[in-house]
User: What shape does this take?
Amino acid sequence: MPEIRKDPLIGRWVVFSPERLRRPMNASTMREPTPGDPESDPFSEGNESYTPDEVFAIRNEHSQPNKPGWQVRVVPNRFPALRVEGNLDKEAVGFYDRINGIGAHEVVIETPNAQQCLEDLKLTEVANVLKAYRARSHDLSQDKRFRYIIVFKNFGALAGASIYHSHSQIIALPITPITIKEKLVAARHYFLQKDRNIFEDILRNELKNNERLVFENAGFAAFCPFASRFPFEICIMPRQQKPHFAECDDHELFLLADAVRTVLRQLSEAVGKPDYNMIIHTAPIKRIDKPDMQTATFDYRWHVEILPRLTGIAGFEFGTGFHINTVLPEEAATILKEAKIL
Assistant: This one.
């Protein structure tokens, strides 16, 4: 059973999951994931028996669960960081705090074709991937043990991917991550001080300034943040105020698919298909026993971060929390906008 331990100094929680060492790639066998034999690829169409039974799928008409004929498929992770079964059992261990590693860990297989990346898919296919995120977020949020749901994608070995086949992950946590708590506190403080939403102010500034803007459509704007941590970092911000990603309707997801696919294509063309992490930052699950989170309806806005891994994180970053970025966001945005994509 995994467990979660709290650092009493800064309030950070750490997940201990030793069985993750059995994944296809770990610290002792680090290598770049490459296209494999379709017959041995656990995510390829026809190999549904290689994975646990699907918990959600978008399928062709008349196709059967756990059989070929799917477009997007969601399955439990074979090497989960957290386990669904069991109770939290919060307890003190001497001076320290711990809980059982209770949660959910799922894999979203984005396409039956191992040769396609997310940006290679048709617009409707990318939208289907986002619909899978939404459906699973809705379902997992019904479990009262969970406090936060994170959706993320690791592409390439530097970003933590162990399998080449295009996929992303969903993890339900029993605790709200400290990074999200910091954003919630900052957003609430800004709202109480100025009676304005900080995300809306950021978005208006980027649209007006236009120096760091990369892409926009009727529902979203993508820009390189003013204080980007990584070269060519991109934030995709919704124009409509919503704290939770799972509240998006089909039209919004279609517009988001347009934004995600476009900026990934720009990034690929501009800097040669880099490894990256893509993260959806949403508000914690609404709970009546967490009244301080209710202000998130007004002051927090869900958003997407795309973090290219063109440079490493080393001692300075770990020691200070600062990041050294070698490319100004204004320069990065110019390069991305000039990228010629189909």
Observations:
- The radius of gyration is 20 Å.
- Residues 250-271 form the longest helix (22 residues).
